Amino acid sequence: MDGGAEQGDPEQYGGSPAAVAEEARYLFREGMLRVARATGTAEREWLREAIDALSDTVP
Q1: Which distant-in-sequence residues (6+ apart) come within 8 Å of 5 by Cβ?
Q2: pLDDT under 50: residue ranges of the chain
Q3: How many CB atoms lie within 10 A of CB 41?
Q4: What's the N-to-C CA distance of the chain in angstroms?
Q5: What is d(CA 12, CA 7) in angstroms, rounded to the nearest whole number?
Q6: Less Cβ around it within 10 Å: N or C end of the chain?
Q7: Quick one: pLDDT at residue 58?
Q8: How far is CA 51 from CA 26, 38, 48, in A?
Q9: CA distance 36 to 29
Q10: Residues 6+ apart with CB under 8 A from 12
Q11: pLDDT of residue 24
Q12: How many angstroms separate the CA atoms of 4 and 37, rounded?
């Protein structure tokens, strides 16, 4: 790589040390659960809005 940064070099990622596999497993699991929760909340909100909009158009 250019600039002397080797793969896995913390400088390549803003100076943060890389997560080890044992920690990453829980880190990514937590992230996926957080994304799933937020997605579910957003989908339910959108569905309510869509049903309300469709209900308004029914004579």
Answers
A1: 11, 12
A2: 1-2, 4-5
A3: 10
A4: 65
A5: 8
A6: C
A7: 72
A8: 37, 20, 5
A9: 11
A10: 1, 5, 6
A11: 66
A12: 40
